[in-house]
TrEMBL record:
PROSITE patterns: LAMP_3 (PS51407). This is CBN-LMP-2 protein. The chain crosses the membrane at residues 237-260. One of its GO terms (biological process) is establishment of protein localization to organelle. It comes from Caenorhabditis brenneri. It is a single-pass type I membrane protein. Belongs to the LAMP family. It is found in: Membrane. Gene3D superfamilies: 2.40.160.110. The keyword Transmembrane applies. Its main location: membrane. Keywords: Glycoprotein, Membrane, Signal, Transmembrane, Transmembrane helix. GO terms for cellular component: late endosome membrane; lysosomal membrane; plasma membrane. InterPro entries: Lysosome-assoc_membr_glycop.
Length: 297
């Protein structure tokens, strides 16, 4: 009867621990939903890897109205090897920025591209040479290629671009960066403005999920993870939660055992360990007991 109850408690506890652990493991469906995009050096080693599930939020204009559309970047999209580069220069807002460039051609969406430009230039508040940042994101949307989804576009092809202001760091630039040699790691959803100012054309936002990004790489695999702020607290909690759960389990087991013991008849206890119930006046003889135990061996 008692045994059944404690087994019930233990199994409930086990389920609880499993649930806690499960919360921190990536669901399989999500893992299948991220694209991996690499820009390779001439020696075949990647200089940029972007691994993420990407969504675009675009303002799409027709002659008489505009709506917001969400485009999921197919994970089967590919890297444009002609445009992408490990060593190029991006001219924008009157600046010439030494950069690494990744262009993704959206799969099954002819004429749709996303450009990601990375730099170590300290104009972008990076510690020159020590950090890299994603300083510009441009999107080209060829609405005309899919009249069913995008009827009557005002402009068949629309460019969305991140306007560079060296005195005012963009959302993306201020968020997606890491030390050279490290990777930017951010599993949670992050949505950033590419453009939220009418002055620079129609609005565009980009959302990243399950993200790992590294530029200026010199080896084929990601460096040490540099976790984004919103995922830091939950990562720090994992060892604490798992630790407390295990500690709880140990205490529970101990308590159950001790309760179980108190219900055992005295003879059984003495049979198992005659020293477990020594009384206070035998304290002196304790040393001798130890000796005699040793002599047995
Ligand atoms: C993004 O578009 C702007 C405006 O057309 C352009 O100046 C800039 O060079 C482009 N940047 C990239 C990385 O393609
Ligand atoms: C939209 O306007 C452009 C020029 O302003 C015109 O050429 C085009 O035919 C118009 N499209 C529709 C669907 O009315």
């Amino acid at each position: 009867m008692k045994g059944a109850l404690s087994r019930k408690i233990v199994s409930k506890f086990t389920i609880f621990i499993l649930l806690v652990l499960q919360g921190f493991v990536e669901p399989a469906s999500d893992a299948a939903n991220k694209g991996v995009y690499k820009v390779l050096n001439t020696n075949g080693v990647p200089c940029v890897i972007v691994q993420a599930d990407i969504y675009l939020y675009l303002t799409y204009q027709t002659n008489d109205s505009e709506k917001d559309v969400v485009v999921h970047v197919p994970t089967s999209s590919t890297v444009d090897k002609t445009i992408s580069s490990c060593d190029t220069s991006i001219t924008t807002s009157g600046l010439s920025v030494s950069a690494q460039l990744l262009r993704i051609n959206l799969d099954h969406m002819s004429g749709w591209t996303i450009d990601f430009a990375f730099t170590k230039d300290n104009t972008f508040k990076t510690e020159s040479g020590k950090e890299f940042t994603l300083f510009q994101v441009n999107v080209t949307a060829n609405f005309a290629s899919d009249p069913k989804s995008f009827p009557d576009p005002k402009y068949p092809v629309q460019n969305y671009y991140l306007h560079i202001d060296p005195t005012d760091l963009s959302d993306i630039g201020g968020s997606i960066f890491a030390d050279v040699g490290n990777s930017y790691y951010c599993p949670s959803e992050q949505k950033y403005a590419i453009n939220d100012n009418d002055k620079y054309g129609p609005m565009a936002y980009i959302k990243f999920k399950l993200t790992t990004i590294q530029a200026y790489m010199t080896s084929a695999t990601f460096g040490t993870k540099s976790t984004c702020p919103s995922d830091q607290s939950s990562t720090d909690l994992v060892p604490i939660i798992v630790g407390s759960a295990l500690a709880g389990l140990i205490v529970l087991t101990l308590v159950v055992y001790l309760i179980y013991r108190t219900f055992l008849p005295e003879e059984v206890l003495n049979l198992v360990n005659p020293e477990s119930h020594f009384d206070s006046d035998s304290a002196e003889g304790h040393d001798n007991d130890k000796h005699s135990t040793l002599e047995h061996f």
